[in-house]
Amino acid sequence: MFSLFYGLWKYMFTKMEFHVLILGIGKAGKTTLLEKVKSQYSNLEGLPPDRIVPTVGLNIGRVEASNTKLVFWDLGEKVLRHEDLQGAPLLILANKQDREGAVPADELAQYLDLKKLNEREYAFQAVSATDGLGIKESVNWLVDAMERSERTDTLRVRAGSSVV
Ligand SMILES: Nc1nc2c(ncn2[C@@H]2O[C@H](COP(=O)(O)OP(=O)(O)O)[C@@H](O)[C@H]2O)c(=O)[nH]1
Ligand SMILES: [Mg+2]
Predict the structure, then answer these.
(1) Considering its fold, how many domains does the chain have in total?
(2) Where are the alpha helices (DSSP H) in the chain?
(3) Could you tell me the distance, in angstroms and rounded to a whole number, from the CA of residue 44 to the centre of ligand 1?
(4) Mean of the per-residue pLDDT values for the chain?
(5) What is the CATH number of the domain that holds 39?
(6) How confident is residue 3, by pLDDT bands cut at 50, 70 and 90?
(7) Is 55 close to ligand 1, i.e. is its CB under 6 Å away?
(8) What confidence category does residue 12 fall into, taking pLDDT thresholds of 50, 70 and 90?
(9) Does residue 29's CB lie within 6 angstroms of at least one atom of ligand 1?
(10) Ion ligand 2 contact residues with beta carbon within 5 A
(11) Domain residues for 117?
């Protein structure tokens, strides 16, 4: 009986944790973005842009948003079509919006043919990793999309959740 209630309690009060892959070509601003997210969602100061060096290996950042834990993986590999990422929500960021001539998010949406990524929820968001424009909106979208994603349920079952 105790374990039943303990399981229920754990289920209700343990924060969900989602992992987010940050993918993009070199110099797109992935590391700068991660540092900005970290500085907006924690008390720690993110690295200032002039101290960010090209990423070697992995750069991982943890933040908490809307009672949810997010783990960002700054990688830069072509993994989107990998079967393990089937159905994972996709947020496409049009970064460097502070720069004159930056491609707006809706224009970017026209360039990218995302119909091939069927069964995947996706959205476009204009951001500036240096100014912080659009960062909160991006993280909110990620949290919402991952919470309502069927993939989340599938992964939870696959992980053999200890919840009753
Ligand atoms: N103007 C501007 N520059 C940016 C922005 N995001 C990143 N950068 C710059 O782009 C360069 C590459 O950024 P970095 O985060 O190292 O890119 P990564 O290779 O994708 O990790 C750096 O000089 C950054 O300061 C942005 O939103 N606006
Ligand atoms: Mg980097």
Answers:
(1) 1
(2) 2-13, 30-41, 105-111, 135-148, 150-158
(3) 20
(4) 82
(5) 3.40.50.300
(6) low
(7) yes
(8) low
(9) yes
(10) 30-31, 55
(11) 11-158
| Alpha-carbon gap, residue 28 to 150, rounded angstroms | 30
Instruction: Tell me which amino acid residue 85 is.
Output: L
5 located within any domain: no
Residue 3 lies in a domain: no
CA dihedral over 35, 38, 39, 43, signed as positive or negative:
negative
For residue 28, the SS3 value is coil
Is a pLDDT exceeding 90 seen at residue 141? yes
Residue 1 lies in a domain: no
Question: Does 36 sit in the ligand 1 pocket, CB within 6 Å?
Answer: no
Q: Among 1-10, 132-141, 151-160, which stretch is predicted with the lowest mean pLDDT?
A: 1-10
Reported as a pLDDT band with limits 50, 70 and 90, residue 164 is very low
DSSP class of residue 83 equals G
Token code pair at residue 144: 């919402």
| Most ligand 1 atoms within 8 A of CB, residue of 21, 22, 27, 131 to mutate | 27
More confident residue, 95 or 156: 95
User: pLDDT tens digits for 84-108?
Assistant: 888 889 999 999 999 999 989 988 8
Would you say the CB of residue 31 lies under 6 angstroms from ligand 1?
A: yes
C-alpha to C-alpha distance for 27 and 155, rounded to whole angstroms:
32
Note whether residue 145 is domain-resident: yes
